[in-house]
Write a structure and sequence with these properties.
- The structure is a homodimer.
- The first copy, chain A, has two domains: 4-116, 2-Layer Sandwich (Enolase-like, domain 1), CATH 3.30.390.10; 122-342, Enolase-like C-terminal domain (TIM Barrel).
- Chain A contains 14 helices and 14 strands.
- The first copy, chain A, has helices at residues 53-56, 60-63, 67-74, 82-89, 97-115, 119-122, 141-153, 167-180, 196-208, 225-234, 248-257, 267-284, 298-311, 321-324, and strands at residues 4-22, 25-39, 44-50, 130-131, 134-136, 158-162, 185-189, 213-217, 239-241, 262-265, 288-291, 316-317, 333-336, 339-342.
- In chain A, the strands form three sheets. Chain A has an eight-stranded parallel sheet. A three-stranded antiparallel sheet of chain A has the order 1-2-3. In chain A, strands 4-14-13 form a three-stranded antiparallel sheet, covered by helices on one side.
- The first copy, chain A, is globular, with a radius of gyration of 19 Å.
- Chains A and B meet through helix 4, helix 11 and helix 12 of A and helix 4, helix 11 and helix 12 of B.
Chain lengths: 344, 344
């Protein structure tokens, strides 16, 4: 037996190197809960929750209050029966999805120590490493270009640019970046900031100028499935759904209603269990996948590195929060420039 | 490293205790290929293919000719990267799906020995055991009732009755069985034998007589998705798709086109990889699942016992071929009456 004895929540907080500005929101630091899952045999499984109020509605101080209810549900369960434990944790998928992700990962992490096989191999071991993009928040044209050139020089070939606050300046900024970083690919993320018609105008402006847009991500509002489809049918570029997709049920709806070319999985929205289902659904429907992050530190990014390499399901990897924070602990993975390798 | 060195195919053949009669087809024996996957460290992973000409179009003698092509694709691969290996084996999903299943399982079986954790736990460990139904082939009314009573006395609470050759005698037989085995549930399987309207007539006759039909399985032709939906919308009972569903793509079509209440997964149709995807798709769509078999012997049924307990996804388990054959080897599972327990 290797059964769950206790769950410990540990506070972590990191400042961003540069305040992180997206549509309607600026972050200067990230507050995390690191999960230490104690088994009766002394194994401690690690996981991490990076809560999001904007996407999930989660409040940091409230998340701490879920510990006892969680423990009550899964105490005494054997980590070898990990999907039984996932089902219990899944009860928090609406109110505390980031905890769902972190605790589910901590179960896999404990199991991986028990069987001495890293989590990415438990999940299938499809890739040895993944390459992350680099995200550049909303800033002045000059600063955006400077940061993009810097990222390009550091070896990042995919740049994720935040747009969505002002159509005209977004177009100017992305054109300037594309001029200054020839040969890169761009994921542009409006974070709900456009109307469908603004998104189509943005797309047209990019296309006329020959910019290599890999994904036009979440141009419209969370619940606007029809608007997303409208953009998809009228953009020359693949359209991605991010905030719109939290659970596997959302993903199936996107597939049924033909609303997107890409789905952005974030463990902090879906946990491990729904993320696994979304992978199968999206691959069967022949759509494509990217994986993103919130403000995770080292162990949080490790979760996504193991998930992404294990399932091997993703065309693009936006796992850069560990690069954007001041000195987070790297654990369970190592980085070689933009390449992220899972480790035991 | 624990890499694949060789694949050995071993012939097995078992007679049925009683010739097995379904719509348009009688089997007196089952011919199997047991797979022995040799790793360089001495581990031998076991799997089994039970080919079906009727469902998959597979010819037994032809399957032997795939061994070298299979080996060429996966030789030297590490079983810890099992989904990479699955992707290679998936290339046989059209021409040799039963081999796909057996070889994919042999990879998991080898991995399970390596990490000393049974396959059902690698897959999530959701259940400790499952209960099988008992299938009764097409026979005279008297023989059907006798066999049904016998199965009921042996502890089987779900009886699967083969119908589909003659509507009138099917109705008489099922009513007689239900009279003689009160309290049982019945899965009735027409194996493509009815027109949609015959299926609806059958369903009406059962409903008027209060028979507890759990699933009206595959009433209509393989490619008749619309006919299946017509039966579904006009039957008081859950309608199941079996022969219609082979790959995960078929399952997604059933979901999109709203054609069934149940999907019958058989590893011999889908292999492990598509079966895993079908589980996620069907659960997300809130349909239900049963798991069935072809003519597998002991190791073949073990595969489905591990899959069914690991994923914990199935409402009904039709894993009775090992009961219907003369003395197959039981391995990787044990049976206590109708209860099937996975073992290492």
């Amino acid at each position: 037996m290797s059964v769950i004895k206790d769950i410990e929540f540990v506070k972590e907080e990191y400042d961003y190197e540069v305040p992180f500005h997206i549509t309607g929101h600026v972050s200067t630091s990230t507050k995390l809960i690191t999960i230490r899952l104690h088994l009766d045999d002394g194994i401690v499984g690690l996981g991490q929750a990076s809560r999001s109020f904007r996407v999930n509605g989660e409040v940091y101080d409230a998340l701490w209050q879920y510990r006892e209810a969680l423990l009550e549900l899964i105490k005494g369960m054997d980590v070898r029966n990990y999907k039984r434990i996932f089902d219990e944790i899944d009860k928090f998928s609406r109110t505390a999805p980031s905890l769902k992700a972190g605790v589910q990962f901590s179960v896999l992490d404990a199991l991986s120590q028990l069987i001495q096989m890293p989590v990415f191999e438990i999940l299938g071991g499809r890739k040895d490493f993944v390459e992350s993009d680099m995200t550049i928040g909303i800033a002045s044209l000059e600063k955006t270009v400077e940061r993009a050139k810097d990222a390009r020089e550091k070896g990042f070939s995919v740049l994720k640019l935040k747009i969505g606050e002002d159509l005209k300046s977004d177009i100017d900024r992305v054109l300037a970046v594309s001029e200054a970083t020839k040969g890169a690919k761009y994921i542009v993320d409006a974070n709900l900031g456009y109307s469908p018609k603004e998104a189509i105008q943005f797309s047209d402006a990019m296309y006329k100028n020959g910019v290599d847009i890999a994904i036009l991500e979440q141009p419209v509002n969370v619940h606007d499935f029809d608007g997303l489809r409208l953009v998809r049918y009228n953009s020359q570029y693949p359209v991605g759904a991010d905030e719109t997709i939290k659970t596997k049920y959302d993903a199936l709806r996107i597939v049924k209603e033909d609303c997107a070319d890409f789905i952005n999985i974030k463990l902090m929205k879906s946990g491990i269990s729904d993320a696994l289902a979304i992978v199968e659904i999206v691959q069967t429907a022949d759509l494509k996948l990217m994986i993103g992050c919130m403000g995770e530190g080292g162990i949080g990014i490790a979760q996504s590195v193991h998930f992404a390499t294990g399932t091997g399901a993703f065309t693009y990897h936006d796992l850069d929060s560990c690069f954007l924070l001041k000195n987070p602990d790297y654990i369970r993975f190592r980085a070689e420039k933009n390449k992220l390798y899972p480790t035991l």
